[in-house]
Amino acid sequence: QLLAANGHAVTLWMRDADQAADINATRQNARYLPDANLHEGITATADIPNFAQADLCLSVIPAQHTRAQLLRFASYILDGLPIVLCSKGIEISTLEFMNEVLAETVPQAARFVLSGPSFARDVVKGLPTAVTLAGDDLAAANALAPLVQGPTFRPYTTDDMIGAEIGGAVKNVLAIACGMLLGMGLGQSAHAALIARGFAEMNRLGAALGARTETLSGLCGLGDLVLTCSSTQSRNMSCGMRLGEGEALQDILSSRNSVTEGVATAPALVRLAAKHDVDMPICIAVDRVLSGNITPAEAMAELLTRPLKSETD
Ligand SMILES: NC(=O)C1=CN([C@@H]2O[C@H](COP(=O)(O)OP(=O)(O)OC[C@H]3O[C@@H](n4cnc5c(N)ncnc54)[C@H](O)[C@@H]3O)[C@@H](O)[C@H]2O)C=CC1
Ligand SMILES: O=C(CO)COP(=O)(O)O
Fold first, then answer.
1. Is 313 a domain residue?
2. What is the rounded distance in angstroms from the CA atom of residue 255 to the CA atom of residue 273?
3. The predicted structure's pLDDT at residue 35
4. How much is the pLDDT for 125?
5. Beta bridge partners of 111
6. Which regions of the chain are under pLDDT 70?
7. Looking at the 3D structure of the chain, how many domains does it have?
8. Whole-angstrom Cα distance, residue 158 to residue 136?
9. Cα separations (Å) of 184 from 190, 196, 216, 266, 285?
10. How many CB atoms lie within 10 A of CB 60?
């Protein structure tokens, strides 16, 4: 919507030709974004897009499927085409972030990450949104920013791609934890404590992987953590709430047609943290609940009975 409103001809690639035809005929994406009238500058297709004529490409495929789809297109992508990664997660089979997956699959592309507090429904309504646009270097991110900016959409640039990706991936897992806590009725004080201690976990992982603290304190870290941990509009948070209320994970996932990224990212994150010797007790607790090892109540009891420690450790 943003790009089309900026005057770009936008090709929306999808796997299902019938759905593409439906979108072109109705100007609605009934399955994934109902209630939004799609801009006339958007054309849906199931054919390989004409990458040779593209100024940029946004990858919005769920994290666990990004590699397969990038490989599908890799040979069509010209040297230096900017690919902007919008998915928030860690690939479970490799423990890689999306920019690492892109570097392996489409090495000729210029890599960017767009992340931050931005519900698609808010953006499409034109509600004010500010996000992080990260590139390999700041000049490249600065050059790309005007293409994705809008009257109510402000990208702030950085060259800290790993920081931008850590923020988006970790906040999804923490939002499941916040949802569980609220679903169990444990109150707003516990909710605030979990956000703050979760942010400490995000920062510890960031330090181990070379992210900058100011990136994680910004839109793609703290900003998105606050949004996702505070809104039932978040799929991760609402999944956690339903777990906290006693529903089974499989029932929750099968009741929705939309991705809940934190579910696959939680085990990847726990393994990545272990590999780098980073302490992430809340994320471990989420993973143990998701894998059926403990109940949400047992997870909260475990977290509360951990040995006391300094707040800055
Ligand atoms: N919806 C939102 O507000 C935001 C979503 N994101 C991120 O964007 C990514 C996608 O999220 P949504 O679009 O909301 O999810 P969604 O579940 O609403 O849509 C996912 C899209 O990917 C397609 N898809 C699913 N499996 C696929 C596969 N194997 N190959 C190719 N395409 C496949 C689906 O057909 C659908 O079009 C996620 O990583 C999410 O964290 C980021 C910011 C905001
Ligand atoms: O990333 C998002 C908002 O910034 C969307 O969060 P959910 O995937 O939890 O809905």
1. no
2. 31
3. 86
4. 92
5. 83
6. none
7. 2
8. 9
9. 11, 19, 29, 20, 15
10. 14
Q: Structural domain of residue 189, as residue ranges?
A: 163-304
Residue spans of beta strands (DSSP E) within the chain = 10-13, 42-45, 57-59, 82-85, 90-91, 96-97, 110-115, 129-135, 153-158
Asked if residue 311 belongs to a domain, the reply is no
Helices within 151-187 (DSSP H only): 161-183
Does 86 sit in the ligand 1 pocket, CB within 6 Å? yes
Of all protein residues, whose CA lies closest to atom 6 belonging to ligand 2? 234
Is 89 close to ligand 1, i.e. is its CB under 6 Å away? yes
Measure the CA–CA gap between 131 and 156, rounded to whole angstroms.
6
- What per-residue confidence (pLDDT) applies to 82? 98
Catalytic (active-site) positions:
171
Tell whether pTM > 0.90: yes
Q: How far is the CA of 214 from the centre of ligand 2 (A)?
A: 21
Same structural domain for residues 169 and 152?
A: no
Per-residue model confidence (pLDDT) at position 222:
98
What is the pLDDT, as a whole number, of residue 204?
98
